[in-house]
Design goal:
It is a single chain. By secondary structure, the protein is an alpha+beta fold. It is built from four helices and 28 strands. A four-stranded antiparallel sheet has the order 1-28-27-26, with no helix packed on it. A four-stranded antiparallel sheet has the order 2-3-4-5, with no helix packed on it. A four-stranded antiparallel sheet has the order 6-7-8-9, with no helix packed on it. A hairpin with a 5-residue loop joins β22 and β23. The protein is elongated, with a radius of gyration of 58 Å. The chain starts with a helix and ends with a strand.
């Protein structure tokens, strides 16, 4: 019994130690206060309050049991004393009384044992509840930390909102300032508009006076050019006759072509350029040959194949070259979207014509040597006046232009296009005279007016050369050969001076000579070119033909 009671006393101590401390009550008050600001603690506080109530009830029960235990000890002591006295007396009545007391004591002992078991259960329940309280406290600390973090984030967001409000206020002030400035500028613009109208009227008057002056100057210049042209023609006529006698052994009358002879063999072979050749052009006197290439250079050669000079000025490949009728100028067009007018004697650019939006494949002089026509991949044909120094008309063509040509009157322009059509234009007003559609089955690479003034030669990527009558707009002659393939969309064949023959460069490196009137192939010039022949040019003063290929090699063929 003593040992059991000792154990009971220790349990009582444990229960006393589990009584509610002051810090827990303070924590509860803090939680209740925090709960007023955050509803997330309502469940925890309620559960914690229930646990505290349960602990209080358990403490009350323990106190009552401790009191009953003390009373039972006192009664047990009395009964023990009585039992001892009765044992000493030794009477039958005493023994009987003793047995009754022992029975009663045994019953009380069982009650006491039951009470201790109840206390033990209560102690275990208190331990469990204390563990639950500790878990709740741990959860409370986590929630408290989260709450503190939320408060910190909330404070940061509040500060950010305040900063944004300040920024918005600044923006509003800026917008108001901009609005005031806009209103002021609008008012000023209205004033300027009034002044501009007056200036436009004055400008129109000045332009009219200036244009009148320009027309007068142009008329004077044209008259001067006509006089100079007549003098030049006379000098050129005399020089051509002398040069023709010296170099070709025959006297040719200027303005009239003898029957051309077909070249038979290669007379001169030149490594003219380091990159692919694109075009070449004989001077009207036949004394010089100009070549151009993707190496950005234009080179001039004499009739014997001797290099004369190089013309440098384009920033990208030079695609076309053309001599002026008066032999004083060279015209070039380039991938750099510009045209250059070169003074041959000076060897330098005297005019740069800019206006195209894409590479220039073709450019030619008009018969007067002061007007130029160019065609570009930007789907336009442009007319230029070298006296004025600018483009006087832009003709929209819908399709990329590969070649342009001007007839001997200088009034009709032909343009060859990617869409397999040839368009005829009036130079004076830019109106389309005729569209010859589907002239070839593939894009048209070149167009050239014949010397008789009635024919137009075209070449297509389909490998066919066609001669069309520009009076009826019908094809009158068609030239082809099974081995002939046109190598590029800017390939340039040529007509002989009398328009009886055509020279065409092929992808196989050969030059094909066609008899136009007979409608048949007359000669294939082989052996000198190793790559595709891009362009051909016929010397107006002899029966020589020049050709240039993709490797930059130039060959002059003669009889």
């Amino acid at each position: 019994n003593a040992e059991y009671m000792g154990a009971g006393n220790s349990n009582i101590l444990i229960i006393k130690k589990m009584s509610v401390p002051l810090w827990k009550s303070s924590l509860l008050d803090s939680l209740v206060s925090s709960n007023q600001h955050s509803r997330s603690f309502v469940g925890i506080v309620t559960e914690y309050q229930k646990l505290l109530d349960t602990i209080t009830k358990q403490n009350t029960t323990v106190a009552e049991l401790q009191k009953q235990n003390a009373d039972l000890r006192d009664k047990n002591a009395v009964l023990t004393n009585d039992v001892n006295k009765l044992k000493e007396s030794g009477s039958e009545e005493t023994k009987k009384r003793l047995e009754e007391l022992e029975t009663k004591l045994h019953a009380q002992q069982e009650d006491l044992t039951a009470a201790y078991k109840t206390k033990l259960k209560n102690a275990e329940e208190m331990l469990r509840l204390n563990q639950v309280v500790q878990q709740i406290e741990g959860a409370n600390k986590i929630l408290q930390k989260e709450n503190d973090d939320c408060k910190s984030n909330l404070q940061l967001k509040v500060r950010k909102i305040e900063e944004l409000e300040k920024a918005v206020n600044l923006k509003v002030e800026s917008m108001e300032m901009l609005k005031r400035e806009y209103d002021a500028e609008k008012k000023e613009k209205t004033t300027f508009a009034t002044k501009l109208e007056a200036l436009e009227v004055e400008h129109a008057q000045l332009v009219n006076r200036w244009m009148q002056k320009v027309r007068e100057d142009a008329e004077k210049m044209n008259k001067q050019l006509e006089e100079e042209s007549k003098i030049m023609k006379q000098k050129t006529s005399q020089k051509l006759q002398e040069d023709a006698k010296k170099n070709f052994g025959a006297v040719l009358n200027v303005g009239r072509y003898d029957v051309s002879l077909v070249p038979e063999r290669a007379q001169i072979r030149l490594e003219s350029h380091s990159l692919e050749g694109n075009d070449l052009s004989f001077s009207p006197s036949g004394q010089y040959l100009a070549t151009c290439s993707s190496d950005k250079e234009i080179k001039l050669w004499d009739s014997r194949g001797t290099f004369q000079q190089a013309f440098l000025g384009h920033s990208q490949p030079v695609m076309t070259i053309n001599y002026s009728p008066n032999e004083e100028l060279l015209l070039s067009g380039s991938v750099d979207k510009t045209l250059c007018i070169w003074k041959v004697q000076l060897g330098k650019v005297i005019q740069t014509l800019a206006g195209h939006q894409d590479k220039v494949y073709s450019a030619v002089f008009c018969p007067d040597s002061v007007r130029v026509v160019s065609g570009s991949c930007d789907r336009t044909v442009k007319c230029w006046d070298l006296v004025k120094g600018y483009c006087t008309r832009t003709i929209l063509c819908v399709s990329s232009c590969n070649s342009v040509a001007v007839d001997k009157t200088g009034l009709m322009v032909a343009s060859a296009h990617f869409d397999k059509s040839v368009r005829l234009w009036d130079y004076r007003d830019g109106k389309e005279l005729k569209r010859m559609e589907d002239l070839h089955t593939q894009q048209i690479t070149y167009a050239e007016f014949a010397s008789n003034g009635n024919w137009l030669m075209t070449s297509g990527k389909d490998g066919i050369i066609k001669i069309s009558d520009i009076r009826t707009y019908e094809t009158v002659i068609q030239l082809a050969h099974q081995e002939l393939q046109i190598p590029a969309n800017y390939s340039k064949p040529c007509l002989s001076p009398d328009s009886n023959h055509a020279a065409v460069g092929g992808a196989d490196g050969n030059v094909y000579i066609f008899d136009i009137l007979g409608g048949k192939l007359e000669k294939i010039l082989k052996g000198s070119h190793k790559t595709s022949v891009i362009a051909c040019a016929w010397n107006n003063m002899s029966s020589t033909v020049a050709s240039i290929d993709k490797s930059g090699v130039t060959v002059v063929w003669g009889p």
